[in-house]
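WARN no homologs supplied; continuing
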Amino acid sequence: MKILLKKVLIADPGSVLNGLQKDILIDGNLISAIEDHISQAADIEQIIEAEGLTVSPGWVDSFAHFCDPGFEYRETISTGVASATAGGYTDVFVLPNTQPLVQSKSQVEYICQKSKDLSAQVHPIGAVTKNMEGKDLAEMYDMQSSGAIAFSDGIHPVQVSGLLLKALQYVKAFNGVIIQMPIDKSIGANGLMNESIFSTRMGMQGIPSIAEEIIIKRDLDLLRYTESRLCITGISTASGIELIKAAKKEGLQIYCGITPYHLFYNEEDLVDYNTNLKVNPPLRSKNDMMALRNAVLDGTVDFIASHHIPQDWDKKNCEFEFAGNGIVGLETAFAVVNHILPELTTNRLVELFSSNTRRIFGLEAATIAPGNAAELSFFNRKETSQLTKLNIKSKSFNTPFLNMQLNGKVIGTFHNGKISLN
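OK structure emitted
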């Protein structure tokens, strides 16, 4: 199948064609030609041309929950992939917090096999500890050999220092990466939102920012000792970002991710007790939110992570105290970031959504050049988009961005020889 992309802007910091407007011819799953003008020959089956169309290496999300196996009423691998594709992603890392947990070779292979012919590649994240109990290491080497992209206990980050130290040492044998959320569960264990004057006014128990700072400091100390590789995702505080910034200057192999919703919302938006804004780590202060935005702009943040956490209707349509944490974020991640940070350069945006994550986790660069495999995301930064219950692809609807008009639109993706258009 031959597809011709007409007059597209190439956004790929790793390509000599970056910033140029070109025609791109795709033959099968390869980029066969990139020219100023390619004639519309008879054997071309599909021609795509639209004003403002930009193409980049396929986007990668590093932290999404597809709930399969065990919680398919929230999401399945197929609906999760459909959601990811609609959001412009060609690759997604999925959490091991399923039932059974992803903690062995067979469970990794189950996910890889089930997503083999879908419109995006699903990469399993293997558990760090057996049964996520924080007592013994899981079979990380076997999982890595079977296709696990990284290791994490997902929404239940490793709390035992000695065990995380062993895990960081263990993955060095194959240059692996441990992913941690910055949550100390022993501090603010029953908290519902950020601890501040707002939590007091709203009559809700708070989660202090020190719960994040302590775990980041500890993890950085362990990283320094082991000289391993660590990713901290979902950072929500200004102090957390400063700790990461200092560690990067020190030369540690530390990487960090930010969620779109921590850039868009802060604790003041909880005034009406909207359960779709109940997340963990919680929405922090306005100052924290602005510090996160600055960290995205100045290059401290390595990637945007959706933290796509589906919840069923009962988990969100209840009192705030009993609501589940999480937002379905794959379909709105690009538009949210593009909307809230219009000053973000297109090159930086591509780094955040694609090239940095590919480099950190050892995926192919997907450089846009003749002869290379076509793994592409198509988008328009100037068009608007709106997620509704009629066009959402996820099986769940727990998002505060429903029916909100945002600046930025995903046009489609090209993955594994197949084009998908919104």
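The chain has two domains: 2-55+370-395+402-421, 58-361.
OK
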